[in-house]
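Note to self: keep these together.
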Amino acid sequence: MPRLTPAFRPFAARARGTTIAIVLTFALVSTLSSGLSIWMTGRSKHRAAVIEIAARQRTLAERYVEELLLVRSGRTADPVQTGKLLSQSANALLDGGLAPAVNGDDDAATLPAEHEPLVRGQLEQEAKLVTDLTRTGSAFLAGRSIAGLPETGSEHIHVADPLQRLRILAALTSNISLNASRTIASRADRDISNLIMLQVGLGVGGLFLSLLLAWALVTATRRQTAHFRSLVTSSTDLVLVFGAGGCRYVSQSVVSMLGRSEPDLLGSGFARFVHEADRDAVATAALDGQPQELVMRVLTAFGEWRDLEAHLTDLRGDRHVHGVVMNARDITERIRLEHELTRQAQRDNFGAQLTEALEMADEEDAAYDVVQRAMVEVAATAPMELLLSDSSRAQLSRAAASPTGGAPGCPVQSPFSCVAVRRGNPVVFETSRALNACPHLRDRPDGACSAACVPVTFMGRALGVLHATGPDNEPLAPEQVAQLTSLATQAGARIGTVRAFQKTQLQAATDGLTGLINRRTLETRVRELTAQHTPFALVLADLDRFKQLNDTHGHEAGDRALRLFSQVVHGVVRGEDIVARFGGEEFVVVLPGLDEGQAVNVLERLRTALGKAHTGDHPAFTASFGVTDSSHGSNLDEILRVADQGLYVSKQTGRDRITIGKPGSAPANGGASNGARFAGEDGRRDDAPLQPAVASGGRPALHDAADEGDPRPSGVEIR
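Structure:
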């Protein structure tokens, strides 16, 4: 059994009664001080407003006289309103109420009634003077005599001039207003002085009581403070104290975090829950206080490892602690977040590089090369392969394999035989021996294994699967599976895009039935030869009696004839020769580097090969040819027109023959016999005149050969 050391209890409850008494005493003193302050302050309430209004009377009296003079001089002023303001303000100062606002001076203010005898007497005298002033002003303004006006303020003014009387009354009013203001201010100063004295007394008394209470508080908490001072200065969240016998103290936060009782953690108990790899470092730090910073893992009662970042303070020399204080905080979530951010950054970097690399792949082989290099980035030693379906989507074949790990050799034959493709999601198998493992992983020569399979799709359609294997019960890490998923997604998108683009290009450039290039592509290729100044021979071919073939045997037989002719032509011409379906049953063959005479030799081989190609129950057919070369025109249309002349002659003279076209001429007498060519001994075209074959529109009728009204036999009949 581990030896338990005495518990260190700095939080023991002591002197609770003393603490309550201290709180009540402070509350009583604060209440008394606040009450006296409020009472003294209430006596001086509204004094500032009263002083302001009283002082304002002087200004209003002077303004009243000035406005009277302005009116008498014919200028605009309102002395009557100013007189009313004087009277209303005087009454408000005396008996309380609303003192009116003065334009350009101040706002209205509500004043209390004045009860101080001296001040009240001064304000009463002021009110009488204001009455005499306004009466005199009214008489002055109306031009009446002032001799009979009463003197309510006992001012005894013996002057006959109304203006001089007004000035004297205004001066008296100003003087009495000033005296009243001074008296009110003096009383306010006296109240403030009394309040200051009271506050000083309360302060001295409060200081004395505070010293007494502080002495009581220090006495009540001296022991707790002595034990606790050093802990508070270095504490963060989790606090532990280590001594020679092990752990001497754990804070409640440690108990709550680990889910263990305090006795289980004291002594050598805490070390039992530290990760084995961190235990020696923690033990050393608990004895020596070094290193001051460390990260450790501890096991909670719930079976979860928590990461703690600890700061150690060596307080073995402190007589109140005598130990090493460890302040720690739980950083498990931060560690997880950092790892996740690191993995995410790696995935983002991998994904960004992969995207850029695949964007530069214009062909499937280039995309496969990117995939192979990416496989090494994901897992250099793991066997890995990319299996893609063929055009029928029925067979899978290996398109790429890891250059360093090799190929795992998955035997799956079709896309939908793969469970990952059927589910449409990545699938990870920890062991091929599991009951739910993929059947294709079993019975492999290298034994049991783990595997990860990620479907490769494009626009919702399955293209194949990215397959990787590893040691049994050691599958790829989740971040590696995520990288494989990114690789499969982006590779599928790029390969699908390349295939779609190639298919679109092929469809745009070729004839869908025969696979030959179409007329538009032919024109482009011929323009390239012309731009390069490459001489060439051009052959215009047309299948004989093609309409009769369609009508007799159906359009399917006609399509087979077109495909058969295309195959035969491809078998005879060279790799650099150009073969195009020009339209309907018409074909164009361009032979770079040959002239029309050399082209005739090629066509003879073509006629022979076509005759041998008819096997089975396929109806036999022949073809007619018109030949020329690039010396007879500067563009494709001109050269085609010449070849069309020769084709027309071949059709008119019996079909199944070759005729070298000559611009503007047609044969005069039937031309050559079946199987013969219009050439002399030197291989050049003879000079027999040709009749031009021009349709009603002025161009040679390329499709007139389809007119089966011609009674002349061709020598080979369609059976």
